[in-house]
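Encode chain A's predicted structure.
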Amino acid sequence: MMFEPMEAGTKKVTKKAKAECNKACTLSIKNAKFVVDSVYKSDDKFDFVQAVINMELNIASRYTKIFPEDTKEQVENMKLALVAYERLRKFVTDFRKHKKATTDKEVLSAEGLTQMNICDEMIDLLPQKISKVNYMMH
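Encoded structure for chain A:
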């Protein structure tokens, strides 16, 4: 995967590599948003719960993989990632209500539960990280 050496810090990231990653992330976000937005508007949206979970997590993850020009852009990308996580949490909560269930465990697979745990953790952690980066900017 193109991000692995960059995430591990084992490879110096060139401007060209950053531009390629940013382009791939942006395209991935655009395509996933197109599909997710279509599903959300659909009458049978709850037939695609696992697909929505996968795509929303992909969107949020890609926002955090973009190499920002500056810390302001980094904060904006983290905010957009948070929006994706919150949108996913709302969708799964709506699905749970639609199914008349009280917990995610009643309506999601083991994989879906793990993914939603990650989502919930990011909803808790990202605001703190955004605040920290904002504080360091000033």
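The chain has one domain: 4-137.
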